[in-house]
Specification:
This protein is mainly beta and 177 residues long. The protein has one helix at 137-140; strands at 11-14, 18-22, 40-48, 53-59, 63-70, 73-77, 82-85, 89-94, 99-105, 112-119, 129-134, 146-149, 157-158, 164-166. The two termini are 16 Å apart. A hairpin with a 4-residue loop joins β6 and β7. Helix content is 2%, strand content 44%. Strands 1-2-3-10-5-8-11 form a seven-stranded antiparallel beta sheet, with no helix packed on it. A four-stranded antiparallel beta sheet has the order 4-9-6-7, with no helix packed on it. A three-stranded mixed beta sheet has the order 13-12-14, with no helix packed on it. It has a domain at 11-129: Jelly Rolls, CATH 2.60.120.
């Protein structure tokens, strides 16, 4: 069953440099009715002010997807990866046995708006990894474009869980199946 949660019903945090909406319990937001859905643990919508971001911090045993809606997300991690993720691109970190990374708004003038999705992997203690892939607008417009899956079907990013992550671009009145 699909359940719509309006922005005003989600958890909300305002830290000055960061405005965040939480679909599930996260950080200081707790709601026993919304702890996640199956392997999905986090679905956050974040807006980060220019030049600001998250200092180095660690993760373990989690598949972390970042999808940029607007702006540019700068990433750096302790495995030597450094990149900028732009709209239409998807970043995947396999946290596995542990990864430390930082995330910042790559712009000094524009807002960064992105979604972060955490999925519990099907096994613990996996090797950490990093991937980034562009999914052109033409492939997503009016279509349910597969962007992450267990088997990497259709050029999607491969995650360690039985999921299908879709990223459509829909206009009012679009019908998809």
């Amino acid at each position: 069953m699909i359940q719509v949660r309006r922005a005003g019903e989600r958890g909300h945090a305002q830290h000055g440099w960061l405005e965040s909406f939480h679909s599930f319990s996260f950080a200081g937001y707790r709601d026993p009715r919304f702890q996640g859905f199956r392997a999905l643990r986090v679905l956050n919508e974040d807006r980060v002010q220019p030049g600001r971001g998250f200092d180095p911090h660690g993760h373990r045993d989690m598949e972390i997807l970042s999808y940029v809606v607007e702006g540019a997300l700068a990433h750096r991690d302790d495995m030597g990866h450094g990149s900028v993720v732009r709209p239409g691109e998807l970043q995947l970190m396999h946290a596995g046995t542990g990864i430390t990374h930082s995330e910042y708004n790559a712009s000094t003038t524009g807002l960064l708006h992105f979604l972060q999705i955490w999925i519990v992997p099907d096994a613990r203690g996996l090797e950490p990894g990093y991937e980034q892939r562009a999914f052109p607008e033409a492939e997503r417009r009016g279509a349910l474009r597969l962007v992450a899956s267990r088997d990497g079907a259709d050029g999607s990013l491969r995650v360690h869980q039985d999921v299908a992550v879709l990223a459509p671009l829909l206009a009012p009145g679009d019908d998809v199946a």
